Amino acid sequence: MTISKDEVGTSLSTSQIGISLEATDLADPNLSADNVSMVEVLKGLHQPVIRFGGNAVDRRFFWTSTGEPIPADYTGDKAHPVRSAGPDDLKRIKGMLDAADAYASLSVDLGHFDPARAADMAKFGAEILGDRLVAITIGNEPNGFGDGDRRQGEYTAADFIKEAQAYADAMYEVAPNVPISGPGTYAADWVTPWVEMPMKQKKILTFHHYPLTGCNTGAGADQPTMANLLSTNMHERSIDYNKTFVEKGNAAGIPTWIPETGISACTGSNETTKTYASALWAADYALNAAQTGIQQTDFHSSMITCKGGPPMSVVCAEGEYLQPTGVMNVRANYYGLSMVSSIGAGKFLKSSNEGGGLNYAYAIQQEDGSTTVAFVNENNPETAAQTKVTLKLPDIPATATMTQMTGSSYAAEDGVNIDGAPAAPPAQADRPAPMDFKPGEQTQTFSLTAGTVTIMNFKY
Fold this sequence. Notes:
21 strands, 28% strand, 9 helices, globular
């Protein structure tokens, strides 16, 4: 790998990584400054954005600032109950955000068309959350509203824009400084109508992306298998897909976010869920999305118990099924995300990489002038030998530090460690120098163990 002093033109932000929750989780008392375990989880992601949205917002979520009862036609089930939320819930969320130095993105219900209620939520969101509120989204995946789900018959992008315009205008009257993000779909053909939509407040382009969408049907390359997850095809196709949205956002002069992503939207467990392989994938996906130009990425998660809860969630609660104790745990993919979030703000540098295979490398120029290099080695830790790396830096280093995520196998659900402990990366000052580091030499050589994520920082 040879790193240039020239910039790619994209950046990594301090809030690059976040988690996505259902809108109904706003009413969960476990999202509180008093819940030490949740605060610590968020701190380990370094100023994350918590996005509240998902399928719940248009189906099972009722906002009220006056204590109205939930309408009778709202339906849910034991695992996905109907919930209402109000200003007191936002105050509790604000306390947690302050304690964890985190941010929030809210969603308003479009499924039940009510611009005035959405504006009321935006008003209280802006007043209570203040600078902690980074955006509000109108609905969730409206491209799926037709055929009797949220709307009778066909529901087109033009229909959505007409309704979203009414929402945006109403919210502007009470919260003009809060950006509106959208369309929040998994359909690329809804992007152009959104970017062309006139809007008084700041606009953000968002889309959802689950790369392996095959579930029980579809092409073999789309199935959520270990072979597909850790493949050069998966890496490249994600870049190509994300690039199509970034190009449209850039052309319109607006930022592009992915507020909901994960390996697959398939329900239940598969061979990729809860595994160390998901941690390797999460780290690489987050980095290649950022380098492509995605400015914020949230990985879909759940507050449901680890036992019986969504297996791809980054976080989950201790306790019997649907009986959370409030103590939050993390799954393997959390550690991959914490590695990326520990890098902090910086600008991606151009580099030439040869002989990569399942090794991916990213170079970032930090605000202090140092260079951080992130290596994601997706080779099988059970069978692959170490990878020899020759790294030519853009200048002559004086000092260096290193942190590394390790796991015993692709399929391992436990035993993920960062620098030997199941915890987020240590502070920069507490990290050791890389093995074989040679001060004063512009070219460094070292070997990387298979199945690792390694972050090195070089100061000149």
